[in-house]
Structures are given as structure tokens and as C-alpha cells.
Amino acid sequence: MVIGLALSAAPSAGQMPVREVSGELEELTRWARTVVADGRPEQLGLRFAPILSNWRQAGRTAQSRQLLSHWTRLVPGASGAWLQLGDLLGELQEFPEAIEVYSKGIEAATASDGLGAERNQATPVLVDLHLGLAMASWELGDVATAERSFELVLDNAPSQFALLQWTRFLAWQGRAVEALEVLGRLPKQLRDRGDVVLLEAKVCAASIKASDTAGSSQGACDAQAALASFQRAVELLPDHAEAHYGLARSYLRVGERDRAAAAMSRYRQLLTEDLEATLRPRTPDGVLPRN
Which residues contact 108 (CB under 8 A, 6 or more apart)? Predict the structure, then answer.
């Protein structure tokens, strides 16, 4: 049918013609310049926010990046725009660029809020900028900057997401006892989530390993606690290969070789399935084809 052909040929929001996308950006940029020249820079956020939300959902990452870049150039003090741009660059794994953007956003937020560098209180946007800086710095191995930024976040009523990232940072550094203390302060509803249960199991296992290396029997966890944590993780995440691997190692530690072998077999099966899914050809839109 003609209607069907027309619908199938219509470009998605993420595949709009270059000329149309370019024209839309030019129109928005002209409007933004006029508004800023009229002394109404706050209007940019009101108009750009829903547009950026729609573009991000539609996969129009390049256009979102250009619009946010225009916004920060026109209004250097728009800390919220710097935050969004930094988050987008982080998602693209362009961490050096993200760090530069988060740093400029922090300067803008600090200047607009009148906060001195020695003060700990900060607005939510400034806290999120520091969290973004912490995450990007961690990705590049800049532990000192990451820890300083995390500490500022922790001083300002951190979100549950921030606490989880801090826990992962502590675990990554081998600070298992501190990581378990942070996990213990999380709400039970969050601690019962599969990924958090697995994180706690991994931290517990790391604590045991560190105690063994140090020749100490006074670790933050014992073998039975680690085993129970991995069993719970497998219950919640039955198709998570890493959970089964941890379970196999925990069974070995308590001498249950048959169960360890079964868990390791499941781990290898899941790895094979993941590899096959990765290598399987896909259609141009990324969807796996039917057999």
C-alpha cells in the first residue's frame, strides 16, 4: 500500500535529513542570540529543556551536543547547561572533554551562587557537577581529584546514586571495610536490589581476600557471609555471569567442590551466550534478525 510505503520510508527522529537538522539548530541559535541580547537568558532553559529531552530520547546525540555547546557559549553562567553537556560527554566516554566541561560548570555555579572555595554548602547543580567530575576523573585514573569531588558530594546530602558510586570507588581502591559501612547505611529497599546485592557480595569477597593476603583472620566478612551474598545475588540476577562466578569461588572457599563446579559451568554457559549474542549479525537499526 502507498500509505505503508510512505510510513516505512519516513525518517525516524534520530535519522532526520542533515539539512533539516541543520536548519532547526540554526533557527534555535538565532532565537537564543536574540533572547540573550534582550537580557532574558533564562528563557533558553525554558525552551531548550523539552527540546533536549526529546532529542536525547530520539538518539539525536550530536544535535544535543551542538545545542548545549551553543547554550554554554551564549550564557557561560548557565551551570545547568554545563552539567548536561558534561553528562552527555561522559556517556560518550569522552572523559577529558567531560572533565573540562564539569570544571567550567563548577566555576559558573560557584560564581553565580556566591560560594567561596572554602565553603561546603552547595546547590544541587553544583553537587551534581562535582559528582560528574568525580566519575570522569575516576575513569581516567585521577584518584586524587575523584576523591576530593566525591567528598564534596558526600558533605551535601548525597543521593543514593552518589552513595553507590562512592561505594564502588572505595571497593575499587580496596577499601572494603569503608565500602561495606556505606552499603550498610543504604535503605533496605535499595540494598535488596540485584546490582547492589552483587556489589555487596563482591566487596565482601574482596575483604576476605585482603585479610588472607595480610595474614589476618579479622576481616569485614567471613566465607559464609560471602557465600550467602552471592547466593542472594544469583537469585536476583539468574542470568548475570559475574554473580555465578562469585558463587563458584565462594563454594570453593567453603569446600563445596560439586556446587562450585555447577556454578562455574553456568558461568561459562552465560559467557558463551553473551559472546554469541555479541557476534550475531544485526539489522541496520540494531535489532537482532529472526532466524
Answer: 76, 77, 78, 79, 82
Dihedral angle at the C-alpha atoms of 119, 168, 195, 210, nearest 10 degrees?
A: -140
Residue 222 lies in a domain: yes
Q: For 220-235, what is each residue's pLDDT tens digit?
A: 688 999 999 999 999 9
pLDDT of residue 221: 84
| 269 and 180 share one domain | yes
Nearest to 51 by CA among 81, 76, 75, 74: 81
Report d(CA 101, CA 103) in Å as an integer.
5
- One domain, residues 109 and 184: no
Handedness of CA 223, 226, 231, 232 (dihedral sign): positive
Query: pLDDT (tens digit, 9 = 90+) per residue, 115-171?
Result: 444 344 578 999 999 999 999 999 999 999 999 999 999 998 788 899 999 999 998
105 occurs within a structural domain: yes
From 128, 158, 188, give the residue that closes a domain.
158
Cα separation, 182 vs 128, in Å, equals 19
Helices assigned H by DSSP within the chain: 2-9, 18-37, 42-57, 61-74, 79-91, 95-113, 124-139, 143-154, 160-172, 176-184, 188-191, 194-214, 223-236, 241-253, 257-279
Q: Are 231 and 201 in contact (CB under 8 A)?
A: no
| Domain harbouring 112, CATH code | 1.25.40.10
Together in a domain, 65 and 148:
yes
pTM for the structure as a whole: 0.76
Residue 250 structural domain: 175-276
**In whole angstroms, how large is the CA radius of gyration of the chain?**
24
| Torsion sign (Cα): 173, 176, 179, 181 | negative
CA neighbor of 88 nearest in space, from 65, 63, 122 = 65
